[in-house]
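Sample intake sheet
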Amino acid sequence: MDRRESLKSLLIGGVGVAGLTVGVTSCKIEPSEQLVESTGYGRTPAEKKHDEAIAKSEPFFSATELGTIAVLCDLILPPTPTAGSATEAEVPEFIEFMVKDLPANQLPLQGGLMWLEGEATRRYNNAFASLGNSEQRAILDHIAYPDIEQESPEFEPGRKFFSRLRNLVLTGYYTTKMGIDDLGYVGNRPNLWDGPPAEVLKKHGLTYDEHMKDKYIDHDQREVVAEWDDKGNLLT
């Protein structure tokens, strides 16, 4: 199983995007506030104004720092034959937005980037983004698996940084249409169910009402909302 499939399994297995988000606080919507959009991502006017202000504000990361973040994003979630990379899903831009929206992320991420550049210089005398893929992965292999590297305390700052960044990358990617499609998530849809098996009904001394059977077990009609007359008789 490759890294992307491992991350998808983690999400599908129950952790979910909400469990991966770093420092994201919930918003309370007052009853008097109306949503801006009626479908999709609904925001109140105040939330939309807030988001627009952040998007238009001065960049937090330098161009060099954002370039390194983009390299890290695609190392964490590279493209596959069926899904685009993290940068194609504009995850670096999402991270830039998040550090301005939640300033508590600023020092850990910027400090982590400094640590990463120091490690790249110490090992290879070059910037991290300028290293070859194998050299980049050699550094990440020391900070991407905290349970394996506990005996190396000198890598602890790198591990904390990479864990925070990876959580943001996953949150950013798997809340885009590209990421949701990659998961294969289709939302709530009517399923196909033929009712309890005949042997189970027989065990309990029950049988289907043949008059009603074609109405409540009809796969072609499963999306039709049932209607009843004033006497409680099923019409459709």
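Comment: The chain is about 50% helix and 0% strand. Confidence is low (pLDDT under 50) at residues 15-39.
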